[in-house]
Amino acid sequence: MLVKKAAVVSLIPAASLAATSSQTEITIDLQSRYQSVDGFGCSQAFQRAEDIFGKYGLSPKNQSYVLDLMFSRERGAGFTILRNGIGSSNTSTSNLMNSIEPFSPGGPSKPPHYTWDFYNSGQFPLSLEARARGLPYIYADAWSAPGYMKTNQDENWNGYLCGIEGESCPSGDWRQAYANYLVQYVKFYAESGVKVTHLGFLNEPQEVVSYASMGSNGTQAAEFIKILGQTLEREGIDIELTCCDSVGWKEQEDMIPGLQVIGSDGKSAEDYLSIVTGHGYSSAPTFPLSTKRRTWLTEWTDLSGAYTPYTFFADGGAGEGMTWANNVQTAFVNANVSGFVYWIGAENSTTNSGMINLIDDKVIPSKRFWSLASFSKFVRPNAVRVGAVSTNPSVTVINNGSSDASLTINLGKTNRVARTVTPWVTSNDYDLEPMSPINVKGGSFLATVPSRSLTSFVTECG
Ligand SMILES: *[C@@H]1O[C@H](CO)[C@@H](O)[C@H](O)[C@H]1NC(C)=O
Ligand SMILES: *[C@@H]1O[C@H](CO)[C@@H](O)[C@H](O)[C@H]1NC(C)=O
Ligand SMILES: *[C@@H]1O[C@H](CO)[C@@H](O)[C@H](O)[C@H]1NC(C)=O
Ligand SMILES: *[C@@H]1O[C@H](CO)[C@@H](O)[C@H](O)[C@H]1NC(C)=O
Ligand SMILES: *[C@@H]1O[C@H](CO)[C@@H](O)[C@H](O)[C@H]1NC(C)=O
Ligand SMILES: *[C@@H]1O[C@H](CO)[C@@H](O)[C@H](O)[C@H]1NC(C)=O
């Protein structure tokens, strides 16, 4: 990864380094411009925000420390996207996210019974802390409508929004009520001082699970996007709409034709969307989605691995730092994403589901965290990915090989080229640490990239 003035980023196509490395030349091509970047992030949904605020004993000092690691660019990763869950639960027990309308007002056209606790399962104070550290994007996403708006009368176990194509309920058509409800959530945040920048209404609609979940195919999602989009327009609310947080990239691709159907008003649902979102679980982001909209990978993690914080590379396991460096690289280079959002940022857990583990008063950042941080700290919103070509197609600045690699990197002949370049290294030995600056001569420099490492070359422009 090469970053110049934080305005462009070059991600050299990932592949593993041959065991015998030879001198390799990489040329940055500032003329080849690809997608622009919104950034990197995580979620603290399902009360994980409360883990940060001391639910399991984190001291105030370490609460600030973990917030800095996540959201401060100077002291940590400087994540730019926080994905909050819009709760659908009628209680706050266990890890449930409470709804702003926990109980039915009696029917879809009855005056709604909204309630706001300025807490939102810890996510509202977390949003304030993240914003104070510079986070620009708050993505509010609902896993489900409240149970009383759904065919199965339950926030869990899938079920559909009453009134959506092919689904009806004795209580009536709740489509407009659900749109009003999402708008009210955004208003509660705004009135309390936090602008929600992105709004979604689905999560993994393909899955039938015991927690909050709601079904939808592309046609049904398109129908609701238009209702929500028009409601936001009527209310004069400026927000970026997203869809559909499918369980995998392929599943999200399958929903897109439905979103692109042009209605009698001459518009498609895609016209109302800013970002098409998908997850990485059942299929990874390895190809561009068939949309002109920007795309974000909005959730992915190693759900099953026992917590492995200190391994950047051992054997390519699902929780290793190197694996996530490659996942990010592939998503940006091969799948054309503009955003990459890991599942949980910090939590008290015994698995790799989060990037930072909180046990009692201990804060343990994993190598997965340092991998995302080494992109996030330097590849800032509105950066543009530019091209890079290598004489050795098996070399990448993510060095996945077992030998050190010698590189010649050509920055291109512009009058803005740097005088020095600082390599920041993440590996088994380093947690995103700066090495000695390298002098640039005639627009190029020589560097050695350690085996099994991720290196960000950062220029200080002269
Ligand atoms: C990195 O190396 C490991 C083990 O040598 C291999 O399993 C993995 O597929 C490689 N990753 C890439 C992106 O080449
Ligand atoms: C609360 O929500 C649960 C889960 O959807 C549901 O089973 C239960 O009926 C709801 N309780 C009330 C009083 O609405
Ligand atoms: C989505 O489901 C509805 C209701 O069953 C159906 O009418 C529609 O054809 C489906 N759309 C797609 C793209 O499968
Ligand atoms: C990549 O995404 C951008 C939007 O960010 C889009 O304009 C472009 O067409 C996409 N490229 C490919 C190859 O899909
Ligand atoms: C918190 O983490 C510790 C250590 O991994 C574990 O023993 C404990 O069960 C966790 N608590 C919760 C509520 O997850
Ligand atoms: C904070 O976290 C660090 C790192 O896990 C730990 O060593 C320390 O004891 C914790 N508590 C305080 C008050 O610093």
From TrEMBL:
One of its GO terms (molecular function) is glucosylceramidase activity. Residues 25-246 form the Endo-beta-1,6-galactanase-like domain. The keyword Signal applies. One of its GO terms (cellular component) is membrane. GO terms for biological process: glucosylceramide catabolic process. The keyword Signal applies. SUPFAM superfamilies: (Trans)glycosidases, Glycosyl hydrolase domain. Residues 1-18 form the signal peptide. It comes from the Eukaryota. Keywords: Hydrolase, Signal. Pfam families: Glyco_hydr_30_2 (PF14587). Belongs to the glycosyl hydrolase 30 family. This is Endo-1,6-beta-D-glucanase BGN16.3, putative. It comes from Talaromyces stipitatus (strain ATCC 10500 / CBS 375.48 / QM 6759 / NRRL 1006). The lineage of its organism: Eukaryota, Fungi, Dikarya, Ascomycota, Pezizomycotina.
